[in-house]
Amino acid sequence: MATPAQRTRPIHLILAWGLVGIPFLYGVLQTLKNALKLFQ
Amino acid sequence: MSGLAFLDRERTVAGPGFSRWMVPPAALCIHLCIGQAYAFSVFNLPLTKLIGITHSDASDWKLTDVGWIFTLGIVFLGASAALLGRWVEEGGPRRAMFTAALCFGGGFLVSAAGVYAHSLGIILLGYGVIGGFGLGLGYISPVSTLIKWFPDRPGMATGMAIMGFGGGALIASPLSVWLLAKFSTPTHVGVAESFICLGVVYTCFMLMGAALVRVPAPGWRPAGWTPPAQATRLVTTADVYVYEALRTPQFWLIWWVLCLNVTAGIGVLGQASAMSQEMFPGKVTAVAAAGFVGLMSLFNMGGRFFWASISDLIGRKNTYFCFFVLGTILYSLVPSTGATGSVALFVVCFLIILSMYGGGFATVPAYLKDMFGTRYVGAIHGLLLTAWSVAGVLGPVLVNYIRQYQIDHGVPKAQAYNVTMYIMAGLLVIGFFCNLFVTAVHERHHMDRQVPERAVLAD
Questions:
Q1: Nearest to B139, CA basis, from B202, B91, B85, B216
Q2: Is B309 on the interface with A (CB under 8 A)?
Q3: Whole-angstrom Cα distance, residue B261 to residue B360?
Q4: Same fold, B2-13+20-212 and B242-449
Q5: Nearest Cα to B353, choosing from B254, B258, B265?
Q6: Model ipTM?
Q7: CATH fold of B242-449, please?
Q8: How far apart (Å, rounded) are the C-alpha atoms in residues B22 and B208?
Q9: For residue B217, how far is the Cα from the chain centroid?
Q10: Per residue of chain B (459 residues), what is the pLDDT tens digit?
Q11: Do A13 and B212 touch (CB under 8 A)?
Q12: Cα–Cα distance between A34 and B1 in angstroms, integer?
């Protein structure tokens, strides 16, 4: 049984990817910041 | 139970117009959270100062005791992935993700109670056993769903999720440090409060993933994509039952492929900081070594997406050939980088090695899908994760014990890792041959050739 037809709108995709993308980018940037110490 | 009917597989079937690109964020909601496991060491030292606060008191736990929390978590990750794979496959991804959220988040809350009561047993039960179950269930829950949504790019899809597991540590590490600073006072170490915050946040985040996830309707396929009419030499269109896969040589060959690839990477991952400082005394400081470890984490994570995506183009077997050939060359080069004092070459060697370590994890679900079909790929992947548990013991033991043996026998610290590097290269040569012997699974193992009872059971 399929769930009621629910067309994915661009805003759904932006919200879903933002939900995971923002913390992910935060983690990557924090790590890069620490990694730069290698070159100092 | 009717109250939990929304967890049923039938209730997660996507309606028309649903975009498959909503599914990777659902998977990432789970993997970004459970990836916290790699950052658990942030809590190790504070856990040894719960009574002494600024120092370890006689009645505080030892670091070796605290180390068992992470170890038990990984053991239960492997055990639950292996034992509950079929339950995950047959009940659908939402039920598995929901259960994983409750176990992983609940594990933190139980552990917080353990910190308040100063009972290591309760923490082991909380993070180690209950949280470990959440780790295993969460790790395998989105795999087969992603493969079904992305039959045209299964490597990329699963690579994206498993990249999240690597990325989870990058988020958890600064977050945990921040929480500890927030809740610690001169008379109190804020571990319990940090556990409560992490438990609540991770449960909510993982439940969002469970709410987002959908499975494709039967017969759905991506627009403009037609499945290959016939199976190719190494990509089957048939399915193999989960426990039948254990009877095939292909399962065990891929088990060794994963185990050897992980063994080679996991040992240096844990020793990277010390190794870089010992191999280049005076050249690599402790701060620089910490930066090197951070870079390695990024390449470990990026390699998961990169190599798994590449495998969609060149095939899984060829991707693992790249790992084993390139890995052997790079490991053999490492001793000469120490001898010539070339820090840059040393860093480049290990960054590529770590990208292939992550790539090995991320490419294996698609390799299993090629060999055993999509029906039970998540469950078979769960069984294969036992290779990770074995490698988790083998890798560090090889690196640490051989180094100590060398030092005890008068080898200078700067050269104490050379033998280990050659042994790692040797392991990768064995992995090369295991991969070489992987051929298509014999038709007698396919589900449509099995006895009727099994076909019914599998439905």
A1: B85
A2: no
A3: 7
A4: yes
A5: B265
A6: 0.90
A7: Growth Hormone; Chain: A; (1.20.1250)
A8: 12
A9: 29
A10: 567 888 888 889 999 899 999 999 999 999 999 999 988 888 988 999 999 988 888 889 988 888 889 888 988 998 999 999 889 988 999 999 999 999 999 999 999 999 999 999 999 999 999 999 999 999 999 988 999 999 999 999 999 999 999 889 889 988 998 999 999 999 999 999 999 999 999 999 999 999 999 999 988 999 888 877 766 777 888 889 989 999 999 999 999 999 999 998 887 777 787 888 888 888 888 788 878 888 888 999 999 999 999 999 999 999 999 999 999 999 999 999 988 989 999 999 999 999 999 999 999 999 999 999 988 999 999 999 999 888 888 888 888 788 888 888 988 888 888 898 999 999 999 999 999 999 999 989 888 766 554 544 443
A11: no
A12: 49
Q: What angle do CA B171, B29, B140 make, to 5 degrees?
A: 110
CA distance B239 to B245: 10
CB-CB under 8 Å, B217 with A2 = yes
Flag if A35 and B217 touch (Cβ within 8 Å). Answer: no
CATH of B2-13+20-212, one of 3.30.470.20, 1.20.1250.20, 1.10.287.3510, 3.90.1150.10: 1.20.1250.20
B292: amino acid identity, one letter: F
In contact, B303 and B358? CB cutoff 8 Å: yes
Q: What is the three-class DSSP state of B232?
A: strand
Q: Could you tell me the residue ranges of all domains in chain B? A: 2-13+20-212, 242-449
- B18 touching chain A per CB within 8 A: yes
Residues 6 or more apart in contact with residue B22 via CB below 8 angstroms: A8, A12, A13, A16, B212, B214
Cα angle value B103/B109/B112 (rounded, 5°): 140
> Does A22 contact chain B (CB < 8 Å)?
no
- The pTM score is 0.89
